[in-house]
selenide, water dikinase (Amphiprion percula), 674 residues
Amino acid sequence: MDCCVIPLRHGGLSLVQTTDFFYPLVEDPYMMGRIACANVLSDLYAMGITECDNMLMLLSVSQKMNDKDREKVMPLMIRGFRDAAEEGGTSVTGGQTVINPWIIVGGVASVVCQPNEFIMPDGAVPGDVLVLTKPLGTQVAVNAHQWLEQPERWNKIKLVVTKEEVKEAYQEAMFSMATLNRTAAGLMHKFQAHAATDVTGFGLLGHANNLAAQQRNEVAFVIHNLPIIAKMTAISKACGNLFNLVQGTSAETSGGLLVCLPREQAAKFCSEMKSQSSGAGGQGASGGAWIIGIVEKGDRRARIIDKPRIIEVPPRGSQAANQDNSSTSPDQNPNLS
Amino acid sequence: MDCCVIPLRHGGLSLVQTTDFFYPLVEDPYMMGRIACANVLSDLYAMGITECDNMLMLLSVSQKMNDKDREKVMPLMIRGFRDAAEEGGTSVTGGQTVINPWIIVGGVASVVCQPNEFIMPDGAVPGDVLVLTKPLGTQVAVNAHQWLEQPERWNKIKLVVTKEEVKEAYQEAMFSMATLNRTAAGLMHKFQAHAATDVTGFGLLGHANNLAAQQRNEVAFVIHNLPIIAKMTAISKACGNLFNLVQGTSAETSGGLLVCLPREQAAKFCSEMKSQSSGAGGQGASGGAWIIGIVEKGDRRARIIDKPRIIEVPPRGSQAANQDNSSTSPDQNPNLS
């Protein structure tokens, strides 16, 4: 499970908590703080929990930074973390900072819940539909962006992508990673989700497999569609599948929720995700939701079909993003009908 | 405060939680795990909380270790952490591990409490007595032990201490740091403690100052006695007060609780600390408790008197430890009567 759920000594309540910390992967310290916070909270959201009682921040300040850089960078990172926590309706009241060769940023999210506040991620049934709430490809975008400064690497991908496209994809990845999965968590209740997880280090397929393995029913997850930040598939292929993006194992940071929904609810879930997210400054792509597969009877594993359909998700604000790119209907792909 | 206390949405309950992580300071990985856990839990114990609903473990594995060392060291450290958690009546069900240049070990402790389960650390009144539940000098002992292998350093202290004494002091410090402050937390309720904190990185005086600063009443803490692991005072003096040990600012790791008790309860608290700790394998020194000072009317600061009495605390198991070395009576020092 994404969180630990501890039954308490008091009145049927449970303590649900999670922790995560990692190293900076975007250059903007403020956005990095937001991403770290979104990433920690995401584990609660994956259980359909929309509230958080408290966050702790875990930081290490790099000993290799000079004082000036440190005083500039760390407060921004902390502010980003706090702002995202506030957006999540919670606050940061505790933590610990140490000195280390590397910067580390992360935190702990804790909430005390009644049983109806969370959805145990084990109720998928054959016939359910799989929905993903953020596009894949954050790792590829972050790496490609670093390669702009590394001619040897850049030469390998410059035939399939422009510098401008890489910069746009990087921005898209950054905003996507910084987006809270809170809206999705709320809609999980409204549309009776049966199970969910968030997509992070093991990639879509890794987390789908973990989720499938813990189902009470004998089910299998079959993934037909891969919504991917535009051009990232081409980059991944151009460097010899370095990332295993279309194989589903490219690592994501603060990825979307993978949600199992009753078939009749999935389109409404996607549609509402899209309409709610456009209000939060996240117009277009990463505020969307895509139907990516189905739940069959099976041996509690997940797989991606041979030649899945790639949904190129354009960066928000781009012309393409102003068209409707979210798959809100299961009828778009014959495999799903 | 040592913890954050978050009022919950449910029935008058509060979420109390704390986090701490740091770098290894003893060579034995199992003991290091125990120390890290004791250090995390200590913040709860300082609030008189004896229960813990859940712990998360935070680890970073050093990239500089080879696989063989890593497979040997990390499981031992984890086991030490888990064993100490079990001794604290709790368990570790969550956490995060990353790769880093340095080993990091720490955790998060959380508990959901009713108001009567914790003691807000702000109720000291003039006439109270200050009690400390572990001897000072852990940092000096750990450093002196490293200096056994550094002739230049060793030459500075070899006139005041033998190698055997340094090894004994190191053992004593290690066991003391690995000892949970849970017994003291329980006795805080029994003997109506008015406030407490645990002694860690800022040293006795630093934490005493912090505690004094948050008192509701206008009080000052005056410290007359310093219980210190045997020979550590001599070492500290021999290296030109490098550690500021008798000045009260030498850092401690997983130090004891500094407790403000009503004057008539202090001796009983100390006596019971001593009798309870001898059962837990911690006979003698670090299972003790020492009356170290008094609470006066004042400006919410702490100070150590000029020429405080140094109580040399012998290593447990040594001949000296079998005599009674705990100051269990306020009458031992005229300043306190």
